[in-house]
C-alpha cells in the first residue's frame, strides 16, 4: 500500500461544536454527528510504521486516544497559532514520561515563536529547521510563507515522493502569484476553507472561503482537493456544489497518497 494521509483534526480555531453556539451544526456535532471536528492535525503514515504528524492542535490527546496511539515521534508545524501548537506541551510530557525524544520540525522563525510560548519544550524535544527543505520519512518537504490575512502569516508545505506531489495549506487567503507557484502540478491539495461564503469584511478575514477556493482550483487544477479548517458554517449533511475531484475532509478520513 502507498503512504496515506489521515485527517485527525479538520476544524478551525474554535473546533465544532463551539462552546457558546447552539446552531444546528453545533448541536448535531454535540450528539456525535458527522460535524464533530477537532483542531488541526493530520497524520502521514506508511505500512513500514514510519510517519509524522503535521501540526499539533489542542485536541492532540483526543486524536491519539481515538486511535489508541501512545506515541508520536515526529511533528511538522505550519505556524505558531494555538490551534496548531496547543498540543505540544502534552506531546513533550509524553516524551518525558516515555524517556523518548520527540522530533519537532518547523521554519526557524516558527521554532523561535514556539519556544517563546513554551520555553521548556527543548528539554524533551529536538528542534529542526525546515528552512531550505528537508527529507522526512521518504518525502521531500519544501515550506514557504503564505498570507494568513489579519492573522499575519503561516507556512504551507509541498511534499514530493516518486511521481506523487501534494500540498498542505490550511491557513491562507488571497495568495499572490509567487505564493501560489508551489501549488501547481499537484496530485492532492489540502486547503483551508473555514466558511462556504464568509460575510465578514475582507480586512478582518484570515482564511479562504469555499467559493474563493473553487475559483482558485480552476487555476491550480490539482487532481484531488480536500478542504479542511472547517468552521460550524460547513454542514457535512448538505450537498454542496463541489466538483467531482473536490470534497470536505472528514474526521479520521484516510486518503491514499498515490
TrEMBL record:
Catalytic activity: 3',5'-cyclic CMP + H2O = CMP + H(+); 3',5'-cyclic UMP + H2O = UMP + H(+)
Domain Metallo-beta-lactamase: 38-229
Family matches, as Pfam families: Lactamase_B_2
Superkingdom per UniProt: Bacteria
One GO MF term attached to the UniProt entry: hydrolase activity
InterPro entries per the UniProt record, alphabetical: Metallo-B-lactamas, RibonucZ/Hydroxyglut_hydro
CDD domains in UniProt: metallo-hydrolase-like_MBL-fold
Hydrolase among keywords: yes
Keywords for the protein's UniProt record, in alphabetical order: Hydrolase
SUPFAM superfamilies the record matches: Metallo-hydrolase/oxidoreductase
Known function: Counteracts the endogenous Pycsar antiviral defense system. Phosphodiesterase that enables metal-dependent hydrolysis of host cyclic nucleotide Pycsar defense signals such as cCMP and cUMP.
Protein name per Swiss-Prot or TrEMBL: Hydrolase
Organism: Paenibacillus antibioticophila
